Here is the input.
Amino acid sequence: MALKRKKIFRPPPPDPTTIYVRPGYNRVLADEFLALKAKRVDLVKDKVEAHSQGDLRENFGFKAAKEAIRAVDRKMTALDRFVARNTFIEVDPATWLTKPTDFVQLGHIVSIEKVDVASKRKHRFTFLVATHGETAMEDETGIECLPHNSPLGTAILGLDDGESTQVRLPAGEAILTILSIRNPTQAELDRLLMEIKPPEIEE
Here is the structure.
């Protein structure tokens, strides 16, 4: 049987970044961490109880509790690293209603044309450049939330109205053109901005 070589060299952690979030996001992160801690306490109790039931080799309750504790530990570690590596700045969406619209900023509704360099296919999108984690879409208008720190969000921030730029996105090289920039209405914000949730962390 071939031996598996242990991976000693790991990719470096991502550089610290500034992530803009809506008011209350930091509280959501803290509540999520406390919820994971409480869940771990309950799982440890289940593990101790299962341990008292006899032979551990065939004690599936013990093994399940042990694995569940490991999964929670991984989530807690990932959440702790996420908080430690980043700086979170809370911004009030009310300020998005009256921003200058000379260039793309957080809170603008932006229409863009995207031309794939390889296939020459053209796509048009309208985005609300939103805070971290926003993914909602308005069916009637087609306006979609675009997190400011996503690859596309990062590429268009700071571009002037009518400006074009060639960028490398996860799907490949593309030419982006800013077709229009405007402020959202309060009604659009009410429909697009959903309940704040903690980041999704894979187990």
The chain has a mean pLDDT of 88. The beta strands are 17-21, 86-90, 109-116, 122-130, 144-147, 164-169, 172-182. Residues 132 and 150 are 8 Å apart (CA to CA). The two ends are 29 Å apart (CA to CA).
